């Protein structure tokens, strides 16, 4: 199964970046690629906590992984190291077996000149998910994260 890794400098302290991974309002604002909107259905921001989120395409031409124009996924936080690491296990909600299975997302935060280096490693991507598309979506989300935190 494919693996991707994307990094970006966010000009904000690690504590602020870490909190943006555990705040459902922040997640709805930043963890969504361009051309989509986000709805956080459930979010328990603690180790072992469950979350369920839908991303809906704005364009009626885009098909979602979960049906219609929506990608819905759920998961849990398996490891939280304050201001350093967030490990999530995530799974798409889809009837398509090619989209099944759990993915692991490990986010690592380190001090960098002028802010925080954010590295997101996706492991176990379903075979039908393009690694290039996953990287592009992750870059868009990290750009949103930077905009959200750097404007404060």
From TrEMBL:
Which Pfam families does this UniProt record tie to the protein? AHSA1 (PF08327)
Q: Which residues form the Activator of Hsp90 ATPase homologue 1/2-like C-terminal domain?
A: 11-150
The record's comment on protein family reads: Belongs to the AHA1 family.
Name of the protein described by the UniProt record:
Uncharacterized protein YndB with AHSA1/START domain
Organism from which the protein derives: Nonomuraea endophytica
